[in-house]
Inverse folding.
């Protein structure tokens, strides 16, 4: 199907506007000569039914968590309660302007302050900022906090290295590099955890700290976490925890107790605000006591029953967001916490871990499971050896034919032909069983009729896409006809 | 199909001695594992690199592979053709898909690399 520009006809309109109430020259006089368009903008010229049908058709070709199971590893694609949307649309929230004076937005500041208290409690850490707009933004902010901390201590010149396990999230090395650190990779051992001897060998006075994903991208909890953070601290370094996988231990363990100095939340993952397509993310950052002075300004403080913005923080790294964060995302996260309560949040992690282990135990009978341990919220299978010439990409594409969103594939890199599956806690057992049946059927097809996999998807709106050409020759703009 | 006249690293680079200089690329096995390569980032000519240092990246549709210097030396040439045709690394990894050439600092380092037989053992027959 074509784009909206290929529909309609010159001069066709979807709405009729009233005539201008003032002469065109007068209106134009508000716009400096140099900023005026020489020609009208190129806009689609379609009728209203054409417009509505076009976008309705597109929406029906889309796949989302509201249409089906979405076991995309490390992304926590849980179902998003619709009440969140309703609350975020309350005019008192959605109609706010971010530059309103403090005294006019006491309720909104209260929301920010209240969520801050809950998140500090969940992290077990004393400081927080809600400003980062997503996980990787939180990582970069965290790395800037590391920098300012060492700068303040006069150690930044020598502490240039950030250690990263090879099972870390892909954005971690990018964030450390962007902040000006040099990344050193730490291998995993045969348990799929940080190799302690390699860590000890890498630690020294030139190390600023470590970035850990807990549990790691194999879905395995670092059993030596206390020793790891202690070793890093003894070497004078700091510990960053990537919180993308918080769904694995929400309400059951606290990164602060494990030795984290900086911990980022993905509100769009763990707190269901939602993730992808449905709006922006939010990546609040909790910090340990020594890093509190460096947090971004302004900090939201409560004085009696009033809230205020505290700008008087001379050691702050400054602000990392034009305003106070992605506010409506924050509203949804607070709603999630309040709706579930203490016990409900603990059930989230229990359900996520149970679902992942249920799938893992069944699917390991059909697929290779290179790291066979009790997993947390996700696990990683290998698609290798399933059939002659069959690769994980073929399995993923065939899953689309069976109505499932494919898992994350080819990540983490330490598993050959990786299939990283994260079911989340919101799927009923029937859905998990149906997914297993599809995976088992695909494994049979790989042996009996491999061309079914190699040519998949057969039933999707588009067939196998040329991913290499899409990257080599990207067409990012509709060519004007 | 592992060329006998090359040296190899366990990170799947190959190195070819050409009178005092070393031409470097990634092996057939490496390009096959990576899949369709869409972007290659090469070191600047004149850069001094030490053995094991990350000097280039090879990006495919599914992963980003890091290329490490098999020996120490100075980068004296890079394969600019890969900028417009990164697929050469897939099509001809031991030929037109070479990455860069190093002027060697310490020729003895070449002896520390794997020979074809040892590399073949590492990757189980497919080079």
């Amino acid at each position: 199907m074509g784009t909206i520009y290929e529909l309609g006809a010159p001069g066709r309109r979807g709405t009729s506007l009233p005539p201008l109430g003032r002469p065109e020259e007068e209106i134009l006089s508000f716009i400096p000569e140099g900023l005026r368009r020489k020609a009208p903008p190129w806009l689609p010229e379609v009728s209203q039914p054409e417009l509505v049908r076009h976008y309705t058709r597109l929406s029906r070709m889309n796949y989302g968590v509201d249409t089906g199971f979405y076991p995309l590893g490390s992304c926590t694609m849980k179902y998003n309660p619709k009440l969140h949307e309703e609350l975020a649309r309350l005019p008192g929230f959605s109609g706010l302007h971010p530059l309103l004076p403090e005294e006019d937005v006491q309720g909104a500041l209260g929301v920010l302050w209240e969520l801050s208290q809950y998140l500090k409690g969940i992290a077990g850490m004393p400081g927080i900022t809600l400003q980062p707009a997503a996980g990787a933004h939180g990582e970069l902010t965290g790395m800037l906090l590391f920098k300012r901390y060492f700068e303040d201590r006069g150690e930044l010149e020598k502490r240039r290295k950030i250690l990263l396990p090879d099972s870390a999230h892909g954005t971690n090395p990018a964030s450390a590099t962007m902040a000006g650190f040099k990344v050193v990779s730490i291998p995993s051992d045969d348990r799929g955890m940080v190799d302690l001897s390699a860590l000890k060998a890498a630690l020294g006075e030139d190390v600023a700290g470590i970035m850990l994903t807990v549990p790691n991208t194999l879905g395995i909890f670092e059993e030596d976490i206390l020793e790891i953070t202690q070793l890093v601290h003894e070497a004078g370094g700091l510990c960053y925890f990537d919180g993308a996988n918080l769904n694995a231990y929400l309400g059951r363990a606290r990164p602060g107790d494990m030795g984290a100095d900086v911990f980022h939340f993905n509100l769009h993952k763990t707190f269901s605000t939602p993730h992808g397509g449905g709006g922006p993310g939010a990546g609040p950052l909790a910090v340990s006591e020594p890093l509190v002075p460096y947090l971004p300004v302004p900090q939201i403080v409560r004085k009696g029953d009033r809230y205020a913005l505290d700008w008087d923080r001379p050691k702050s790294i400054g602000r990392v967001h034009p305003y106070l964060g992605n506010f409506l995302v924050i509203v949804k996260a607070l709603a999630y916490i309040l709706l579930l309560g203490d016990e409900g949040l603990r059930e989230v992690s229990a359900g996520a871990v149970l679902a992942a282990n249920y799938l893992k135990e069944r699917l390991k009978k059909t697929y290779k499971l290179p790291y066979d341990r009790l997993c947390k919220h996700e696990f990683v299978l290998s698609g290798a050896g399933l059939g002659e010439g069959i690769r994980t990409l073929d399995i993923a594409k065939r899953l689309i034919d069976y109505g499932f969103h494919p898992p994350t594939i080819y990540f983490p890199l330490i598993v050959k032909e990786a299939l990283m599956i994260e079911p989340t806690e919101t799927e009923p057992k029937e859905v998990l069983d149906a997914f297993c049946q599809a995976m088992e059927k695909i494994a049979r097809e790989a042996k009996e009729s491999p061309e079914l996999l190699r040519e998949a998807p057969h039933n999707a709106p588009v067939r196998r896409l040329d991913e290499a050409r899409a990257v080599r020759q990207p067409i990012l703009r509709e060519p004007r006809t | 199909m592992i060329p006998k006249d090359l040296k190899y690293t366990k990170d799947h680079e190959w190195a070819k001695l050409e009178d005092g200089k070393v031409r470097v690329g990634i092996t057939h096995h490496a390009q096959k594992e990576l899949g369709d390569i869409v972007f290659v980032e090469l070191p600047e000519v004149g850069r001094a690199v030490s053995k094991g240092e990350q000097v280039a990246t090879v990006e495919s549709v599914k992963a980003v592979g890091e290329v490490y210097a098999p020996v120490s030396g100075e980068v004296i040439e890079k394969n600019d053709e890969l900028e417009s045709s990164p697929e050469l690394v897939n099509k001809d990894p031991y030929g037109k898909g070479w990455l860069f050439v190093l002027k060697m600092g310490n020729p003895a380092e070449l002896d520390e690399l794997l020979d074809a037989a040892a590399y073949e053992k590492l990757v189980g027959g497919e080079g």
